[in-house]
Design goal:
This protein has one domain (about 5-115). Helix content is about 25%, strand content about 35%. It has helices spanning about 5-15, 65-70, 105-115, and strands spanning about 20-25, 25-35, 40-45, 50-55, 75-80, 80-90, 90-95.
Length: about 120
């Protein structure tokens, strides 16, 4: 399973199917509601990395929120506190390359900083 397939599976189960549990690679993760806006949220692991999917808040000023206001199902995904991408109506969009969520080795960081 690829990261894109995993994000789409989480979106489908949590938003499209309105499931209370999301199953991914044989593990189950609860779908919770945020305390303030009651948006659906799922904390899960994929390829050893902790990820979070959260239903798009329709009250924010973004094109994704505009889609949510129009009744579309949109879920944002974060890794390490940074936005990774989203799934809107089953279509996965990455904001940066999927491999960019992991830390680079110290030797690579030093080379990038000296450029």
């Amino acid at each position: 399973m690829t990261l894109a397939e995993a994000l789409a599976a989480v979106w489908r189960q949590a938003l499209a199917e309105n499931a209370s549990l999301v199953e991914l690679e044989g593990r189950r993760y609860p779908v919770r509601r945020t305390p303030r806006r009651r948006l659906r949220q799922v904390d899960f692991e994929f390829a050893g990395e902790a990820l979070r999917g959260i239903e798009q808040n329709p009250e924010t000023p973004s094109r994704w929120a505009e889609m949510a206001r129009a009744g579309k199902k949109v879920m944002q995904f974060t890794a390490g506190g940074r936005y990774l991408g989203n799934v809107a109506e089953g279509k996965v969009t990455f904001y940066r390359s999927p491999g960019a969520t992991t830390k680079q080795p110290a030797s690579s960081q030093g080379k990038a900083a000296s450029r």
